[in-house]
Specification:
It contains six helices and three strands, in the order E-H-H-E-E-H-H-H-H. With about 140 residues, the protein is mainly α. Helices cover about 50% and strands about 10% of the residues. Among the domains are: about 45 residues, YefM-like domain (YefM-like fold), CATH 3.40.1620; about 45 residues, no CATH class. The protein has a three-stranded mixed beta sheet. The termini are far apart.
Length: about 140
């Protein structure tokens, strides 16, 4: 009689879980920097520090279970985000009409025709040249 336990195959390892993208990776404050992040519990415990960071011009992300749930910003930043803009529909219409008029010149038409008739290689070269020109 053979020992059946010795002949068993070792259990296969489960496949590693797919990495989820970091939900905080795309968030930026007004300076373009990643904002500070606190768990809800830490934010409650360290509210004075969190408030000071916000008042210095930063944004603070409050997370729960590793997911962003709220963002604290200063009153100035909030007002800037919610203030109605000065641009009215009439002003936007005038800007559009002026842009459209610039696009209707014979020179602009010729450039658009050249762009649509260009090969992918030519479009690539033009894109690289334009990117280099911008710096």
């Amino acid at each position: 009689m053979t020992n059946m336990g010795a002949m068993r195959k070792p259990a296969a390892r489960p496949a590693p879980a797919a990495r989820r993208p970091d939900p905080l990776a795309e968030l930026r404050d007004r300076r373009g920097e990643p904002p500070a992040a606190f768990t809800a519990t830490d934010a409650k415990k360290r509210f004075g520090r969190v408030l000071e960071m916000v008042l210095r011009g930063g944004a603070v992300v409050i997370t729960r279970h590793d997911a962003p749930k709220a963002i604290l910003i200063s009153v100035d930043d909030f007002n800037a985000l919610t203030r109605p803009t000065d641009r009215t529909l009439d002003a936007l219409s005038a800007d559009f009409d002026a842009m459209l008029a610039r696009m209707q010149t014979p020179k602009a038409r010729a450039r658009m025709k050249a762009a649509f008739d260009a090969s992918p290689k030519e479009v690539g070269r033009a894109a690289v040249a334009a990117a280099r020109k911008r710096g």
